[in-house]
Amino acid sequence: MMAYTIKKIADLAGVTTRTIRYYDEIGLLTPAEKGENGYRLYDNDNLLQLQQILFFRELDVPLKEIDLIINRPEFNLMNALEKHRSSLKGKAKRLNVLITTIDKTIEAIKGKKEMAENDYFNGFDETRHENEVKARWGNTTKYTESRRKWAGFSKEHKEAIKAEGVRITTRMVGHDPNISPGDADIQAAVGEYHAYLKKYFYTCDVSFLRGLADMWVEDARFAVNYEQIREGGAKFVHEAVHIFCDENE
Asked: Which CATH topology does 4-75 take?
């Protein structure tokens, strides 16, 4: 048996020894041997298992779910590798689209080429954070209402709703760096966005809208959507929404 020390297997995988120890503690990666001195020794099966863990982590699967998957009696390594290959090819395709979106945005900002409104969000996957959204909002009436409404729309209607959202969002952020968040056109766009949420997703009072705006600047994953339209976009739309909420409470 080829034996690997904890440092060797950690170096091979590009992770820390602390990570390997943690995986052992939670029963995710048990070493092939443990000496009386407490030293962990790993074999080739451990290498393959660690590879599976890292593949699943790359696909944003939580550790608890990875444990349930790879420790199932019916778990098949070859089938798992085929699924990883398919999933990663899909992810690579999406990332290439995102890179193209970045390039187009840079050209638009530099004034080299105009960018269509729909192109600002090419490559973003609306289902990517579905588990997190469900965990955060799953027990709320708004989540239930949103899911119910969205399920009732046709594919074509959903695309039209998304396009409308892009148009309104672009108007809320604005392209003019000299415009104020309290400008009449910006405030009109915020009002349209408020109505848009209520029409297509869930009941949304100004207090909830204010909370959404706070999340847009506090969470980088949301902020980037507005920063891609223009630098400082997240802070700008946050201020614009707060002004709207102050005036409509």
From this structure: Multidrug-efflux Transporter Regulator; Chain: A; Domain 2 (1.10.1660)
